[in-house]
Design a protein that fits this description.
mainly alpha; 2 domains; globular; 2 strands; 118 residues; single chain; two-stranded parallel ribbon; 6 helices
């Protein structure tokens, strides 16, 4: 079993987080250290995208305005957001330049502006 330090280091080294500014990577690492191994395992098992019920067919029912926000370097989730935007009747997709998977940490003001403009 990994220690919390080992897990935090390995998780942060995943390609998904590649290109993060050092201050963001360091903050995310410190945040992960505030967890427990059991708590992180439960979160990954219970909240991971692979265990959530797919709701793609229900997206057209969501008529409220939706703002999808992704980082420019986050190719996987940018593509998923575009697929969601195509199914949502009242949605827009904002791509935050020069950010990856954690756009809210890398460019919090740009994300806040996107939300406020929503």
């Amino acid at each position: 079993m990994l220690t919390i330090e080992e897990f935090a280091r390995e998780w942060g080294a995943r390609p998904l987080f590649g290109g993060q500014p050092e201050r963001v990577a360091a903050g995310a690492y410190a945040d992960r250290l505030r967890n427990t191994p059991a708590g992180l395992a439960k979160a990954l098992i219970g909240f991971g995208t692979g265990v959530m019920e797919p709701l793609w067919d229900r997206l057209p029912q969501l008529t409220i305005p939706v703002t999808l926000i992704t980082g420019e370097r986050d190719e996987k989730f940018r593509a998923l957001a575009e697929q969601m935007r195509a199914r949502l009747p009242n949605a827009r997709h904002v791509v935050i330049p020069d950010t990856g998977h954690a756009a809210q940490l890398e460019a919090p003001h740009a994300v806040a502006e996107a939300i406020e403009a929503g």
